[in-house]
What does this fold into?
Amino acid sequence: MENNSASGYWKATLGLLTKILIIWFVVSFGAGILFAPALNSISLGGYPLGFWFAHQGAIYIYIALIFWYAKKMGDIDRQFDVHEE
It folds into this structure.
């Protein structure tokens, strides 16, 4: 991989990681702590939504993030021709 291509690859990779970490922070800290009082006015399965997000909902989002990361990272690898066969 050429130097210019390598810097583009890492720029794309760090951009993806930045997006994932922002989503992770909003879900973990935002939905579980900061927005919990507002979310608690909504009920899901008999439990306040803020409680549900802090204990179960966040896990579903984390699993979705893992699959999204794997797909997008594969796309970036193919774009810069560093994918595995």
Summary: The chain has a mean pLDDT of 89. The helical segments are 3-34, 36-39, 49-79.
